[in-house]
């Protein structure tokens, strides 16, 4: 006997100039990085290929937003269970520069490095259910931040061994969805950049991530 395949769902996204849940896209990006940097690399969803760690650091919060994760480059396929009623933040392309990456850097130097990185983005793509967003659609969602405070975990992602407080500036292309209803949401996002300048955070970065999000 063949079981019926569960219907997939789509969900709308908030416009780039809106304030989902009372915050700008840049403010949501700051909160995303505060979450991502405080989790040790061994438990961080960034390095998780299956999705089993997707809720780490956010399973017991009252936030209206659930963070999906980027990866460190390449292809990832993840299955993630999310509480129904929460929105998703999707980092289609992203960067954060802190004074642990560039010791002694001024705020302006952090901002310049982050901007240079994201100025070099040459592809963006997102599909949620049957809704597709191409490069031109997603360019509107760039959300550079001003300086903000983060606290790194010890043995964190990006090879940071000694944690603690740090100044950070982020940039990138982030999407906020409307709250998820019960259902299954296939989400595919990918992006790339080429940045040959020696000051670039990464000279050649490509990520391609497929999520199967189960909201319940």
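^ Assign residues to that structure.
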């Amino acid at each position: 006997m063949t079981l019926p395949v569960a219907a997939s769902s789509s969900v709308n996204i908030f416009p780039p100039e809106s304030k989902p849940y009372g915050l700008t896209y840049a403010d949501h990006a700051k909160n995303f990085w505060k979450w991502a940097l405080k989790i040790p690399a061994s438990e961080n969803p960034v390095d998780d290929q299956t999705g089993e760690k997707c809720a780490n650091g956010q399973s017991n919060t009252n936030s209206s937003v659930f963070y999906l994760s980027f990866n460190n480059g390449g292809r990832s396929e993840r299955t993630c269970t999310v509480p129904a009623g929460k929105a998703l933040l999707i980092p289609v392309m992203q960067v954060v520069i802190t004074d642990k990456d560039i010791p002694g850097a001024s705020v302006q130097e952090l901002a310049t490095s982050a901007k240079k990185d994201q100025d070099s983005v040459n592809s963006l793509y997102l599909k949620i259910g049957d809704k597709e967003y191409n490069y031109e659609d997603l360019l509107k969602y760039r959300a550079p931040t001003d300086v903000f405070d983060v606290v790194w975990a010890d043995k964190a992602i990006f090879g940071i061994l000694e944690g603690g407080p740090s100044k950070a500036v982020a940039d990138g292309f982030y999407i906020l969805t409307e709250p998820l209803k019960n259902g299954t949401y296939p989400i595919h996002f990918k992006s790339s950049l080429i940045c040959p300048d020696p000051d670039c955070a990464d000279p050649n970065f490509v990520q391609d991530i497929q999520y199967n999000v189960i909201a319940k």
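The longest helix spans residues 25-37.
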